[in-house]
## 1
Amino acid sequence: MVCEATCGLKFEVEDNQILSVRPDDDDVFSQGYVCPKGIAIADIHADPDRLRRPVRRNAAGEFEEISWDAAFDLVASRLSEIRARHGRDAIGFYWGNPTGNNHGALLMLSAFTKALGTRNRFSSGSQDANPRIVTSYELYGSSISIPIPDIDRTDYFLCLGANPIVSNGSVMTAPDMRRRLRAVRERGGKVVVVDPRRTETAKEADEHVAIRPGGDAALLLAMVQVLVERGRIDRPFLESTTSGWAEIERRMAAFTPARVAGMTGVAADTIARLALEFADARSAVCYSRVGVCVGPHATLATFATDLLNIVTGQLGREGGPMFTTPAFDLGRVARMSGLDGRDRWRSRVRGLPETLGDLPSAVLADEIETPGDGQIRAMVTFAGNPVLSVPNGQRVAAALDTLDFMVSIDIYINETTRHADVILPPCWNLAEDHIDLLFNAVAVRNIARWSPPVVERGEGELADWEILLALTERLGGGALGEPWLDRLLGWLRPLGVRWTPTGFLNLLLRFGPYGDRFLPWSDGLNLAKLKAAPHGIDLGALRPGIAQRLFHSDRRIHLVSPCMLEAMAGLERDLDTKAGTNGLVLIGRRELRSNNSWMHNVPALMSGRERCVLYVHPEDASRYQVRDGEMAILESRVHRGEVRVAVTDEMRPGVVSLPHGWGHADSAPWQKVAGGHPGVSANDWVDDAIVEPIIGQSILNGVPVQLGPCAA
Ligand SMILES: Nc1nc2c(c(=O)[nH]1)N[C@H]1C(S)=C(S)[C@@H](COP(=O)(O)OP(=O)(O)OC[C@H]3O[C@@H](n4cnc5c(=O)[nH]c(N)nc54)[C@H](O)[C@@H]3O)O[C@H]1N2
Ligand SMILES: Nc1nc2c(c(=O)[nH]1)N[C@H]1C(S)=C(S)[C@@H](COP(=O)(O)OP(=O)(O)OC[C@H]3O[C@@H](n4cnc5c(=O)[nH]c(N)nc54)[C@H](O)[C@@H]3O)O[C@H]1N2
Ligand SMILES: [Mo]
């Protein structure tokens, strides 16, 4: 409910109060594993600073409670008025990461967006997995065809730009990654971690490759080049399942290990050895995540991840990258709802392409600030904190203050929502039933679970999806986002027929790969059976094969797409011009007791030493005259500010690391614990003017910075 790992929890509840939270030892997937974030879930629920009633900002700038009706009326009338006067695109919408944990909200997104009618929709995707999504769309013809490491059977795990021991794995739902990684080694396999920092995961690995930030695309393409040159590629697999290999093969010649050594900071013979090891392994999987997805060549690097898996014939094989067969077929929903696709329109300012309906967040402030037709004058935020999570956060905060109206659907008053005129709080996860729609679709096993609400709702409280539905209806839309279907639903209402997300998912389940298809004699799945299995249902290991996940009309993997070829040419130019620059660059970091920006108000997660500190290698510390434990000045093109330094040889020299999601000073009046440990926001230093070329992804890692001592 708060995390991709989806660990099973056991609650002890009395009089609607949660007495304890423990890991569920009988959970079919997590088997008793849980991390501190999971246990903290009850503290979030009980947090006195969490909003329970809608609030409205009064003339004095203070938030005061109002009734739900008054809140909905106010929001609907202000949004309608602004839309009538300035057009549909005058309303901007940003939805954030916790939406992924919430099946009701996920299913309402499309209908709500249709009711707003805006193309100015943004999300955390351009700070997260959009390169993964677009790579899948181009290669396999569906954004939701995502290869997942078969971590429990692989003999070789090559992990780039991810720290799953801390993050618990991302786009790879897998509780207890430490155990799973150890198991790879115990059965004689090898784990290699490619990361500018010697991370917690790197320390568990057989080998750590301290790459220069932004070097991953070059590294992976060079590995492919080595395999081409040594005749180690799986030609029968390429011939039977792909198109365009000849073109790619020709292009690989440019990426020799010697040529990419400068940009990657990895010696040519290491690159060649890694390539051959990968090809020699009985099974192998290359996996890349956030560190790669928010770099300068993010989409090409993600493409190169899959390319390595494809040319070695590992895709779809046991122990390789495989496709999950989820009980709830999310890909089908995406295709049915017309969501799947990219670059169908572009941002008004800077012309950046949409991905799955969302524009890149790097252009959000521009769209609010730049006058003209289509300028954003009102914002809706849903479960997002863009002020702390998108590039140049301080500019975003200032832009929000210029809006005519803003509404946030959120559980806290924080750095973003404090700018809103109205905040609508949901009853939150523990008072709703729960299905892991998204994360079970990218899990390392096929799993299905339904969880009941843990506590009863407070009086008048609404779930996220009910808030979205109420607004959708007031804006003239309906739950299904399709006028004729919604009319039909309206006619059925007197008969007691009502759309609910869980009811909808029951249909998806029953017609899904394991469903009973409403046949009374079938032993297939339906919601009742899921409800009867409180520890979840294990539907087995990932299934070999790729055919069911290819959606191009010729049912082949399309290795060639114009955007990837262009990006390769761009990378080649960078190889010669940007290799070997000596300046300092900033990258990000996650920590176990933190979850992006919003779990810092839980005392149990905040104890101990200060964590929002800049990791600096000892050589850099002496070079830039900064000292362990002391404040220093960090400066980028868009921001200059103080940070506390922690000197550590975990860092690659020339690279400094700061976690994101901090910077709570402005929230202190409403979040007492977080406000007491504010830290600084890494994204204040991130430049919103530069984006990754294919999809406009934010470049959060590899930000050029200067470091120096604070003036005495
Ligand atoms: N520099 C840097 N920046 C990054 C990253 C990085 O690695 N480095 N990572 C990026 C990534 S991967 C992500 S996903 C983004 C996250 O970016 P966002 O999604 O914008 O931000 P979060 O910090 O996840 O904030 C979630 C918000 O949702 C609220 N919330 C929590 N639960 C619920 C709920 O159930 N319902 C509702 N309505 N609200 C809820 C919280 O109070 C909070 O305001 O950050 C990105 N930013
Ligand atoms: N405890 C905790 N768990 C979380 C979260 C959290 O905030 N806290 N956030 C959740 C979210 S929203 C997500 S999306 C996932 C993300 O989960 P992961 O993808 O595992 O992300 P990170 O832990 O940020 O790891 C990214 C790694 O990339 C490295 N890196 C930076 N630049 C580069 C580069 O150019 N190349 C390479 N190869 N590496 C680079 C960083 O040093 C870092 O170790 O985690 C989720 N889980
Ligand atoms: Mo994320």
## 2
Amino acid sequence: MSAPQNPLAASRTASSQQSELAAAPSSASMPDWYTQGLPHIWLPYSQMKTAPAPLAARSTHNARIQLTDGRELVDGVAAWWTACHGYNHPHIRAAIEAQLATMPHVMFGGMVHEPALKLASRLCALLPGDLDRVFFTDSGSVAVEVAMKMAIQYRLNKGEPKRTKMLAFKGGYHGDTLATMSVCDPEEGMHHLYGDVLANHIIAPLPQDEASEAEFFRLLETHAHELTAIITEPLVQGAGGMLFHSPDVLRTLRTAADRYGLLLILDEIFTGFGRTGTMFACEQAEIVPDIITLSKALTGGTMALAATIARPHVFEAFLSDNPEHALMHGPTFMANALACACANASLDLFETEPRLEQVAAINAHLTRELERCRTLPGVKDVRVLGAIGVVELEKIANPDALRQRFIAENVWIRPFRSIVYLTPAFTIPPEDLTALTDAIYRVLSTEN
Ligand SMILES: *Cc1c(COP(=O)(O)O)cnc(C)c1O
């Protein structure tokens, strides 16, 4: 599978010999668009010098991805856990086609439309408590940035200009833009590399036991005068390594936020829409955040869309005769009509198809079939929550190589840090789910 020389690093000025190598993995079968386009692509999270050549996807169906060379992979990731209804759901396709025929997009500055307003009212009805004011954006990171701007300007508008910092958590992930990097885990968020470019927020341990609780409250006490909000991912720190915590932690955060007069921002971009077993993770703690962010599964894995939703007391701090008190933000593709139509269709499917029951079935299935991995050499932990299955290893020396071994088993599983995880479509057939867990067991059995 590995090329003699890395095809990704081939530059525009590469010799013809190098361009030939661009197709090296299975050169005869790679289409022209692949060999010609690959030297112009910069891939995410990749050391382009050594990354394995990316697969060439041709089509998708439910929990499967067909490649141009004829192979078909069972998908354990669901496109970074967005495709909760499986790929190519006919109801979402019909919605996007209908919207495309009438109005793909209009600017949202001074104009609104049915798909966006319907979606806003449906989201507010679905969310717990009085989260009732929706600001649409086009990516998760931007939704978090908007939440941070709301929390900061909330203080400015109230005449508390010194309270502009966030309290965020070790192991947290809130996006890849500069502002969101500053509230990610300091190591994973590369704070040491970016140094003073990043804003200086307070990073605490999640209050999960006596020691971490003491440290959390110490930091809170010390910094309360300069803090505006606490921000966390509820129940699962996803990109931080699929680290689970109990609903009690969220109740502690809600109580602490109230005691110190802070806003609580819950980033449900990963957890929202059923992934943890309830529609939203915060329901399991029976708490309501002041601001919530949603994206990932919002459109059922079809279009880029995100939302930041605030409670009335947050929104009301922006109502003023002073023009400087308005929220100055407005992405060009904000509330894109096609994306909103997809999101409405996705919400329809949560109403008409048994998604949360499917999540419960996946949970039981993963619990049953991943358990045997626990005794494999190098396995540190096996854990399952909702439709998330995790096998944590002592360490993964080479995640790229491990990914290649999964591909050889005809499954799409993308290990990172020290974990192998599954976040499948909720519609995945049981036999496909077993294909995924079998592949994990087989590959980890022979690892090293
Ligand atoms: C994916 C993710 C983000 C960032 O979303 P993008 O759309 O990739 O910008 C933020 N927060 C959490 C919890 C996420 O899982």
